[in-house]
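Field guide to reading this record: the first block holds the primary sequence, the second block holds the structure written as discrete tokens, and the final block holds curator observations. Each block starts with its own label. This record concerns Pirin, catalogued under organism Podospora anserina.

BLOCK 1 — SEQUENCE
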Amino acid sequence: MSRITLPRRILKTLLAKQQSEGAGATVRRSIGTPSLRSLNPFLMLDHFSVSPGAGFPDHPHRGQETITYLLTGGMDHEDFAGNRGTLNPGDLQFMTAGKGIMHAEMPRQNPDGSPNIGLQLWVDLPKELKYCEPRYRDLKAEEIPTVITEDGKVKIKVISGKSYGVESLKDLAYTPVVFYDVEVQPGGKIEQEVPQGWQGFAYILEGADVTFSDGQQEEKKVSQWHNVVFGNGKEEDGVVARVEETETKPGRFVLVAGQMMDQPVVQYGPFVLNSQEEVYQAFVDYQSHTNGFERAKGWRSEIGKSMVH
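BLOCK 2 — STRUCTURE
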């Protein structure tokens, strides 16, 4: 791997504040808020915590993809086309809503009552794929290659992309995205290339503060639950991050970047299209069970029925 010659600038950092979402779930949202409406091609990033009895019962989508990364616990999913499955710790699901999907995402009932925790990232779809057939791609924890740097101080799960010579599986999302889960021990440092011109961010999951290079000269220390938004200048070729030797635990974060799109974004709730008219049409189609939502008529998920009232 070539050395990073010019680390990406930091455009902003923001705290993901806790809020309610779904039925009894809580999320820390950093993209898709008044502070950061969107980050082309990303529409939303939620760090969710869902306790037993809460969840995301039957709801529709059109026009975007979602990437769900489960960190602890378990999540069941089910849709109106008969697709169903379970995410366990370390698993991911790439869901393309396309012209229309109706599904439910519900937590497992953990014996100790502990919450189910993970990340969900919404990614825009290119205009020409807004009305594609919906699909899923699952990525199991054991399928994700892991690389450890020579000094043993950095561990990287290569979910999508390439890191230190190790490459991920292919064809998980239509929109090109790189996605790394990074753990840096005290005294460790990562230099990760990111495709030029792509928009990227790092979200601190847990542990020690992480110090990111801010361009060539400066550094910025960032703590848990903060999102770091990077610049995408043509000369900026990667992200450099370290954890100070004096820390007592590692710092863990996800580093994500995506290919930017030159298209308008009009979003209303779960519908993400390119014009106000298309959003109106999505509501009409959903309510009349047409143009992709035919199977929504009378459908109720089995897992959604498990909601505790």
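BLOCK 3 — OBSERVATIONS
The chain is about 5% helix and 50% strand.
The mean pLDDT is 94.
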